[in-house]
Amino acid sequence: MYELIIIGAGPAGITAAVYAARKRMKFMVITVDIGGQTALSGGVENYTGYQFITGPELAAKFEEHMRKYNIEVKENEPVVRICKAQDRVIVETKKGKYAAYSAIIASGKRSRELAVAGEKEFKNRGLTYCATCDAPLFSGKEVAVIGGGNSALDAALQLRHIARKVYLINIGSYLGGDAIMQEKVMASKIITVLNNTRVTAILGDKFVSGLKIMRNDKEEFLAVEGVFVEIGLVPNSEFASEIEKNEIGEIRINSRNETNIAGIFAAGDVTDVPEKQIVIAAGEGSKAALNAFRYLAQHKFPD
Amino acid sequence: MVKSVKVYSTPTCPWCIRTKQFLKDNGIAFEDADVSTNQLAAEEMIQKSGQMGVPVLDIEGEIIVGFDKERIRQALGL
């Protein structure tokens, strides 16, 4: 019987695992991937101790730190349900069913989809949600980044070194995100910002050849070969159907990372913690592990 | 029998790094085609897989898109 199951291996899950390992807890990690969104980030310049590190490098550092402790990690295993039966937490995945006395949900967020015609057909055929992964394939091409926040700005800034032309398609009337990134976007001759613009369809034959856009209430066609969707995130919380969430599906937690169900904790981007940052997710992960440890100590469960 | 393995990847893609690490950990020799700098390889990858996502593996003619550990294992008989 496990004392703890950690769901997810992004900054929150991995930090929780490191803390749990150091408390010598009997636990395992169940996750779809390792590194979470961190592994998909371009440059990270605000994780303390690193003035600059790429997302994949930081994710590799996290993983290396976790692997140092010989932790049981089940990768590629999506969780489909979590519930409580008496004093046990039951975690059901696509591959099996596991029981523990406590759990930490740190399943993070994923890219929001556009929900327009052509999106599904052209996924990986010119349309992508991971600029870090796929940007190099668009060398010398005209591309569009859809979105107006930090991740859209990050994608546009990565692409300005690769693509011939980058359209940044923003639904709002001005860009969001950090001022320092906005300044870099505005300074680039490669990037053209289209504000007040909405994408209505992805067009193409075998691969993407363009976008249908609504700009100032007029429909236009924009010829691009690449489409990078960066319109925000949705929490990976569908499997936690018995746990209290806010109106956007984030798991509600208190300052001790407790959910509405005793013994089930949550940490990082999947929660309603204000501000989503790598450094915050990591901190939340450590808090959740320490509070799970305290919970177990208070309850004296059988082995 | 040693199978020929070719990995189409970009240097920044985390799944590519993990795919290559997985092959290395299993002692599998492979040809690494960097599609971010090698335009010919990029076209070859798109033509073989009918899509543009990386990584793509060509294991003796079997095309695997993404870091699909189980399919890779199967294709290599691991």
Walkthrough of the structure:
The complex is a heterodimer of chains A (303) and B (78). Chain A is of the alpha/beta class and 303 residues long. Chain A folds into two domains: 4-110 and 233-299, FAD/NAD(P)-binding domain (3-Layer(bba) Sandwich); 127-229, FAD/NAD(P)-binding domain (3-Layer(bba) Sandwich), CATH 3.50.50.60. Chain A has helices at residues 11-22, 55-67, 131-134, 150-159, 179-187, 278-299, and strands at residues 4-7, 27-30, 43-44, 53-54, 72-74, 79-85, 88-93, 97-100, 103-105, 109-111, 127-128, 142-146, 165-169, 191-194, 197-204, 208-215, 218-223, 226-229, 233-235, 264-266. Chain A is elongated and about 65 Å long. In chain A, 47% of the residues are buried. The mean pLDDT of chain A is 95. Chain B is α+β, with helices and mostly antiparallel strands. Chain B has three helices and four strands; from the N terminus they run E-H-E-H-E-E-H. Chain B has helices at residues 14-25, 39-49, 69-76; strands at 5-9, 31-34, 56-59, 62-65. In chain B, strands 2-1-3-4 form a four-stranded mixed sheet, sandwiched between helices.
Task: Give me some keywords for this one.
heterodimer; A: 303 residues; alpha/beta; FAD/NAD(P)-binding domain; 2 domains; 5-stranded parallel sheet; 20 strands; 28% strand; B: 78 residues; alpha+beta; 4-stranded mixed sheet; globular
